Amino acid sequence: xxxxxxxxxxxxRKDWLTRPITYQMGNIGSEVSRSxxxxxxxxxxANKAIDRALELFDFxxxxxxxxxxxxxxxxxxxxxxxxYFFGNNSWHTNPAKMQKYYDQFVxxxxxxx
Length: 113
Fold this sequence. Notes:
By secondary structure, the chain is mainly alpha-helical. It has helices spanning 10-18, 21-39, 43-63, 68-86, 95-111. α1 crosses α3 (43-63) and α2 packs antiparallel against α3.
């Protein structure tokens, strides 16, 4: 098995796996927001935020492997994110639509920390 060079520390990854889905998706949303913000202004910063978002998606997938419905939703969100930044945007996503999706998790986390 190949070694993976995580952006986040192993301790951060382990902590992530114990967090509620609202926390996970809200924090992914922060990186998505950064990705969208920098995409037209500074591609280096955008790429770093994209990399962090993808890593957090992967951690979230790992944390939710036993919950099929939740896993399906996470995988769809990741696919939409990747399609927007790397594909031909077949999901017809725009930044406002994407941000609105993640904002709901931030709001839920603030209501139920």
